[in-house]
Amino acid sequence: MTTDALRATPKVETPLRRFLTDFFASKLAIAGLVGLTLVVLIAIFAPWIAPQNPYDLRQLDIMDGRLPPGSKSFSGMTYWLGTDDQGRDMLSGIMYGLRTSLAVGFGASLLALMIGMSAGLIAAYFGGWVESLIMRIVDIQLSFPAILVALILLAVLGQGVDKIVIALVAVQWAYYARTVRGTALVERRKEYIEAARCLALGDRRIVFKHLLPNCLPPLIVVNTVLVASAIALEATLSFLGLGLPVTKPSLGLLIANGFAYLLSGKYWISFFPGVALLFTIVCINLVGDQLRDVLNPRLQK
Amino acid sequence: MLEPMIQLANVSRRFAKRLDVAARIANWFGAGLKDEIVHAVDRVDLEVRQGEVVGLVGESGCGKSTLGRIVAGILPPSEGTRAWHGKAIDTLPAAEARQAELKIQMIFQDPFASLNPRLRVTDIVAEAPVAHGIVKGSEREAYVDDLLRRVGLDPSLKRRYPHQFSGGQRARIGIARALAVKPEFMVCDEAVAALDVSIQAQVLNLFMDLRADLGLTYLFISHDLGVVEHLSDRVVIMYLGRFVEIAATEDLFQRPNHPYTQALLRGIPRLDARKQAFEPVQGEIPSPLNPPPGCHFHPRCKHAMERCRVEQPDLKPIAPGHWSACHLNG
Amino acid sequence: MRPNQPVLAVESLRTHFDTRAGVLKAVDDVSFQVAPGQVLGLVGESGSGKTVTGFSIIGLVDPPGRVAGGKVLFKGEDLVGASEERLRGLRGDRVAMIFQDPMMTLNPVLRVDTQMIEAIQAHDPKVDRKAALIRARDALGRVGIPSPDERLKAYPHQFSGGMRQRVAIAIALLNKPDLIIADEPTTALDVTIQGQILYEVQKLCRETGAALIWITHDLSVVAGLADAVCVMYAGRIVESGSVDDVLDRPMHPYTAGLIGSVPSRNRRGSKLAQIPGMTPSLLNLPQGCAFRTRCSHAQPGCAVEPPITQPVPGRTLRCFHPVGLAHAHA
Ligand SMILES: Nc1ncnc2c1ncn2[C@@H]1O[C@H](COP(=O)(O)OP(=O)(O)OP(=O)(O)O)[C@@H](O)[C@H]1O
Ligand SMILES: Nc1ncnc2c1ncn2[C@@H]1O[C@H](COP(=O)(O)OP(=O)(O)OP(=O)(O)O)[C@@H](O)[C@H]1O
Ligand code: SF4
Ligand SMILES: [Mg+2]
Ligand SMILES: [Mg+2]
Fold first, then answer.
1. Ligand 3 site, CB within 6 A
2. Pocket lining: C17 vs ligand 2, CB cutoff 6 Å
3. N or C, which end of chain C has less CB nearby within 10 Å?
4. Chain-chain contact of A199 with B128 (C-beta, under 8 angstroms)
5. Residue in B261, B262, B298 to alter for ligand 3 test, most ligand atoms within 8 A of Cβ
6. In this structure, is residue C128 part of a structural domain?
């Protein structure tokens, strides 16, 4: 490895190119990426591609309630995945639900990433009591089950998109902080950081321009995994009725809605949103696994 | 006499491995664990005069890098003072202190770890001089080109990333980065140790050229006696955090006084010594966590006497400009 | 075995790696011999193929690498294409390997005595535990480990780096091998510790009559230790012969350049002789003589591959325009 790099001629493949080749070496990862792209596109363009706006009460007809997949409505539209008890088209419901689930999942993870990253970097770079304080909080936070923390927070804060984002951030920032601190501790000891100090560059510049970019690869990996778990956690909370309000149904809420009818044979109301949720999470995890393998220097030959 | 350019007085650096919570709890139950303290540098005095090259030699873990970092201002000493042209740096006003720190630069050992892999060469070199207002943004590119040519690199490569260069080229980038803030004093910590022999010679020549052209002063840290002998005017031998011998290079290599220096000189393989009968020093390098009392070298020394085991020998002059810390000198 | 028959004769060995960027010829037409009791130094810079040569001899090249041609005659038996079983039987028994990192040999979770007894019994199940233990203790004593009885009960991490390397050497020597391949075993160690190990190894080879291949990038170590030397550059042996011949009268411009760039060969403070340019990538070698682009003797004719010649009995050379004798003495 080192001997190779030592004599590397300027023409060798760039890290980006190598990263891409390595990433696309796995068929599963490609499948995951394709699936994920599809899901994201659907979520983004739901208002334009969904057969129906499931929240526009004028488009709903209670008479169409709980129709099985493939049924036709009065107005001649086919409910490919059936309808729920309000007479909503399940396909449209899932598309809109994805939109909410992904937005909440990605948004909360991004916010948690920013907070956790800053906390981790500060802890690693400054050390001493700052580090002790931050990492103690992280330890305490991580020693409680995520779902418990979220439940307590929501019980206190009440419902709402902003509330659930706060709950998810509160649960997840600690993971980011711990990951970043680990990498940053290693990077901080490298000589390029000492060189920057020797050149009397400011702390802020060193932390954000030198330290941070070199801590990103493991963060990206953790981020994909945590997006998936944010989505799952949000679905869980919504399923329990503590998450999003009924006016903003996510996949979790859709599943909860159909739950009551599951035993009466009207499986589709819960089943299809469940499949969509599972599919999304599996795709994210496939991508995340491959990222981890590719970005992990210890596994690189 | 001229003031020394840089002067360390009675400088020590300790590293403490503090007990963590678990160990402290274990102590309640009588585990008797203590904080572990390493005396990486133990009360040393060092003066380097303008234009001089001082070599610092010693085995792994003896505190060479720690001392180098203290000189370069990266690591604060636990005790002692550091003066630049006769003025203690930590008593200077902030702006002046920063000026002094910029005049002292460091060249690192690892040509891979010492360059930020995510910055282009031109940014690596230009960042500090622009940040400190040494060059204007508009003159930045010309300035970088100049520096790269100075260290023997083709300026047309400056938009590349460090990984696209060989070890020797990276070492040159590191040197250009240091030169960019117009230093007067360079601490080179094993600056050629990671390079191949043929590339090492190129970089050593570059150091000598820079000295001649820019009048640089060096503290040259190395475990390679051949390299130090070639480059230095004076040599300091370090053992377990203390200086054991200081002398002009010729003096040291021809009339080594301290038993440790003598052993070092005998133990190095030389190109012209064929089928050498290696005469090794006995024993291992003791742990700096738990150094032997008295003279640190006594467990490995052929001449050790009772006194060596209890009393630490002082660094004493034994000839003009030649200092040694051994009880054999009385 | 007849006296003077080489223990090992490598003939036109080629080892290639199939990489994404093409076939990398890490070892390209390499031939040499080692006689019983002889120490052969294999020198070259980083990436020149020394380690791969050593691995090829004992069949340790893993895919994407493969031995693409040539013979490895160990006491007359060709090991290229020998069964994995046969090779495993030889390794650690008749042929021993010592690595730069002793933990390649040592198992961190087993006590030293367990490992040593296993090593003996693996190749000779008839030896009982007690006899094996005695042999293990003697082996530790022979490599200069004080109080071997206690040390046998220790785990590898309880030893210092130098000690660990000694234990690895002791394990390598347990079954009195006919051939030892040592890959830079002292490179990571301190000068005084390296001296100790060179001393022990020298003594052991004299006593046991094993043939030793010592891989290193340090010409000085070869000078002090070896009888014969092969100089590698970009996968090929460019020059070989007795240590005195090659180091005092180098013929290949590369060897001459390497020797010239050793600081102790130069007057103190003078410019070092240096080889210009940098080591080429093995995937992208110049046509013909791979050293051509850095060589001061190169002529247009060097674009054809130079054949192996025997300019003087006992020496081989791959160069059209060898350095003259007068030049080498200057
Ligand atoms: N940041 C640190 N924390 C704790 N101990 C340290 C630290 N830096 C150095 N030490 C210890 O201080 C001692 C001196 O280390 P130093 O790196 O100065 O040695 P050195 O002479 O440069 O060795 P080498 O030749 O291996 O580079 C060592 O025992 C080391 O373990
Ligand atoms: N598994 C591998 N895959 C691809 N190339 C390899 C592999 N192992 C070694 N090589 C290449 O083979 C060449 C020779 O490597 P080798 O390790 O033998 O060099 P060396 O002379 O031992 O160098 P060093 O002094 O750094 O140990 C190098 O260019 C290296 O990149
Ligand atoms: S003081 Fe004593 S032990 Fe130390 S080097 Fe001198 S003689 Fe040896
Ligand atoms: Mg060091
Ligand atoms: Mg090698």
1. B 258-260, 295, 297-298, 301, 303-304, 308, 313, 326-328
2. yes
3. C
4. yes
5. B298
6. no
Per-residue pLDDT of chain A (301 residues; tens, 9 = 90+): 333 333 444 445 566 777 888 888 888 889 999 999 998 998 888 888 877 777 777 776 667 677 777 777 767 677 777 777 777 788 888 888 888 888 889 999 999 999 999 999 999 988 888 888 999 999 998 898 888 888 888 888 888 888 889 999 998 999 999 999 999 998 888 899 999 999 999 899 999 889 988 888 888 888 888 888 888 888 888 888 887 777 777 888 888 777 777 777 777 778 888 888 899 989 998 988 888 888 765 544 3
Q: How far is CA C144 from CA A67, A297, C151, C193, C208, in A?
A: 87, 38, 12, 11, 16
Give B 124-153 residues with CB within 8 A of chain C. none
Place of tokens 């204007």: B136
When divided into structural domains, chain C yields a total of 1
Residue holding tokens 């510790």? C193
C-alpha closest to that of B163 among A297, A226, C102: A297
CATH number for the domain spanning A179: value is: 1.10.3720.10
Are the C-beta atoms of residues B38 and B288 closer than 8 Å to each other?
A: yes
Instruction: Look up the domain containing A124 and give its range.
Output: 103-294
Q: Which residue puts its alpha carbon closest to atom 25 of ligand 2?
A: C46
Considering the entire predicted model, what is its pTM? 0.84
Is C324 among the domain residues?
yes
How many angstroms does the Cα of residue B297 sit away from the middle of ligand 3?
Answer: 6
Distance from CA of C127 to the nearest CA of B (A): 33
Given a cut of 80, whether residue C27 has pLDDT beyond it is yes
Residue ranges lining ligand 1, Cβ < 6 Å: B 15, 38, 40, 58, 60-66, 223, 288
The H or E element spanning position C20 is: none
Q: Which of B3, B26, B88, B53 is nearest to B215 (CA)?
A: B53
- Is A75 in a helix, a strand, or coil? coil
As for how many domains chain A has, the answer is: 1
Q: At what angle do helices C161-173 and C112-123 cross, to 10 degrees?
A: 20
* Of C160, C193, C223, Cβ closest to residue B271: C223
What are the sequence ranges of the domains in chain B?
Answer: 4-103+183-329
Instruction: Name chain A contacts of C20, Cβ cutoff 8 Å.
Output: 21
* CATH fold for domain B4-103+183-329: Rossmann fold (3.40.50)
Q: What is the pLDDT of residues B278-304, one digit of tens each?
A: 777 777 777 778 888 999 999 989 899
Assigned domain for C281 exists: no
The residues pairing with B104 across neighbouring beta strands, listed in sequence order, are B185
